[in-house]
C-alpha cells in the first residue's frame, strides 16, 4: 500500500470519528469548508447517529466509491447530497460504486433530472435486521433498474414479499435473502426480469415453498440453500436441470433428507462444486445421482453423523477434491491406506 492510499485510509477514519460528533448542519459545512476533500477517492460513513443529512459530495471530481451504513437519522437523500448545481456542472463525474447498508429510516431519494451518476457501474443495497422492507425508497426505481448489482436482505422478520415485484433489474447479479422467516415467495418472472442473476443464496426462509414459475435465471452459476424446510421438501420440482450455467450448489440444515442424497436428476451435470452438510438423518450417498454429475471436481460433506459409507460403486471419475468433516462413521472407513473406502 503506497503513502497516498495510507493517507486516504487514515483520513477516512478521522472523518468517520469527527462526523459522528457533528450535528447535520455542522456535518455539511465540514465538507464544504475543506478543499482537501476534493481529492478524496473513497469514503465510508458509518454509525453516524447524530447526522440527518448527507454531505454535498456531487461536485468532488475524484470521488469514486461511497458507502453509507447504519445511519438511522437519514430518511431522505435530498438535493444537499448533490451540492450546488448548475446547467454546466456534472454531478459525481467519477463515482463508480455506491453502497447503502442497513439504512433503517431511509424512505425517499431525490433523483435530479441532470445526468448524475454518469460513470456509476455498481449500486448495492443491504437491509439488515429491519422489521419490514415493503419497497425500495421512493425515487429509487430508475436507479435500481439501471445500476443495482447486489441486494441483501437479512433478518427482515416481517417481510412477506421481496420489494422487486415487476422491476426489470438487468444488472442484478447477486441476491442474498437470509432470516426472512415470513417471506412466502421469490419474485415472479425472475428468469426474465433479473436475467443477469448469477448468485442466489436463501437461508432461514421457512415459508418459501418453491422457485417462481418459469424457473430461475439461466445465467445462475451459484445456488445456496440452508434451513428452508418447505423449499427443500419440494426439491423434486426445482427444475435445476434447465440451468446451463450452474456450477456451484450448497445445501445444509435440513432434517427431511432422510436416507440418500442427491436424488437422481436433482442437480444439473454442469456442477463442478457440490457441498452439503448439517443433515442429521442422511445415511448414504446416492450413487446414481452423483454419477450423473460428470463435471464434478469438488465434493465437500460436513456434519452428517449418520452417513455410513461412500458409494460402493465409487465416486464420479471427474472428482479431484473430496473433503469430509465431522462425519464420525466415515472417519475410520476413509483412513489413509487402511479404511474400507480409501
UniProtKB/TrEMBL annotation:
Superkingdom: Eukaryota
Domain R13L1/DRL21-like LRR repeat region: 26-71
InterPro entries, sorted: LRR_dom_sf, LRR_R13L1-DRL21
Matches recorded under Gene3D superfamilies: Ribonuclease Inhibitor
Pfam families associated with the record: LRR_R13L1-DRL21
Protein name per the record: R13L1/DRL21-like LRR repeat region domain-containing protein
UniProt organism field: Rhododendron simsii (Sims's rhododendron)
Amino acid at each position: 500500500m503506497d503513502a497516498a492510499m495510507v493517507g486516504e485510509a487514515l483520513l477516512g477514519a478521522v472523518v468517520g470519528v469527527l462526523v459522528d460528533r457533528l450535528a447535520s448542519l455542522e456535518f455539511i459545512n465540514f465538507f464544504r469548508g475543506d478543499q482537501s476533500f476534493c481529492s478524496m477517492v473513497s469514503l465510508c460513513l458509518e454509525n453516524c447517529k447524530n447526522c440527518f443529512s448527507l454531505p454535498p459530495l456531487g461536485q468532488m471530481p475524484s470521488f469514486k466509491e461511497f458507502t453509507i451504513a447504519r445511519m438511522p437519522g437519514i430518511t431522505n437523500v435530498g438535493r444537499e447530497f448533490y451540492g450546488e448545481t448548475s446547467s454546466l456542472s456534472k454531478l459525481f463525474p467519477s463515482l463508480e460504486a455506491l453502497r447503502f447498508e442497513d439504512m433503517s429510516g431511509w424512505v425517499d431519494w431525490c433523483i435530479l433530472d441532470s445526468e448524475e451518476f454518469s460513470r456509476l457501474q455498481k449500486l448495492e443495497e443491504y437491509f439488515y435486521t429491519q422489521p419490514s422492507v415493503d419497497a425500495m425508497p421512493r425515487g429509487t426505481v430508475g436507479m435500481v433498474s439501471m445500476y443495482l448489482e447486489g441486494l441483501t436482505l437479512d433478518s427482515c422478520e416481517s417481510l412477506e414479499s421481496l420489494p422487486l415485484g415487476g422491476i426489470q433489474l438487468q444488472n442484478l447479479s447477486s441476491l442474498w435473502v437470509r432470516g426472512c422467516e415470513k417471506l412466502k415467495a421469490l419474485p415472479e418472472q425472475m428468469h426474465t426480469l433479473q436475467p443477469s442473476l448469477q448468485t442466489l443464496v436463501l437461508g432461514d426462509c421457512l415459508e418459501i415453498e418453491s422457485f417462481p414459475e418459469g424457473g430461475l435465471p439461466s445465467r445462475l452459476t451459484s445456488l445456496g440453500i440452508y434451513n428452508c424446510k418447505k423449499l427443500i421438501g419440494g426439491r423434486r420440482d426445482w427444475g435445476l436441470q434447465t440451468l446451463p450455467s450452474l456450477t456451484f450448489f450448497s445445501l445444509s440444515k435440513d432434517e427431511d433428507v432422510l436416507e440418500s442424497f442427491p436424488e437422481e436428476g436433482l442437480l444439473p451435470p454442469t456442477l463442478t462444486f457440490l457441498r452439503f452438510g448439517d443433515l442429521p438423518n442422511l445415511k448414504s450417498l446416492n450413487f446414481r445421482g452423483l454419477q450423473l454429475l460428470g463435471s464434478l471436481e469438488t465434493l465437500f460433506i460436513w456434519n452428517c453423523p449418520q452417513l455410513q459409507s461412500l458409494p460402493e460403486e465409487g465416486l464420479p471419475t471427474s472428482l479431484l477434491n473430496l473433503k469430509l468433516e465431522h462425519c464420525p462413521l466415515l472417519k475410520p472407513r476413509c483412513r489413509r491406506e487402511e479404511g474400507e473406502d480409501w
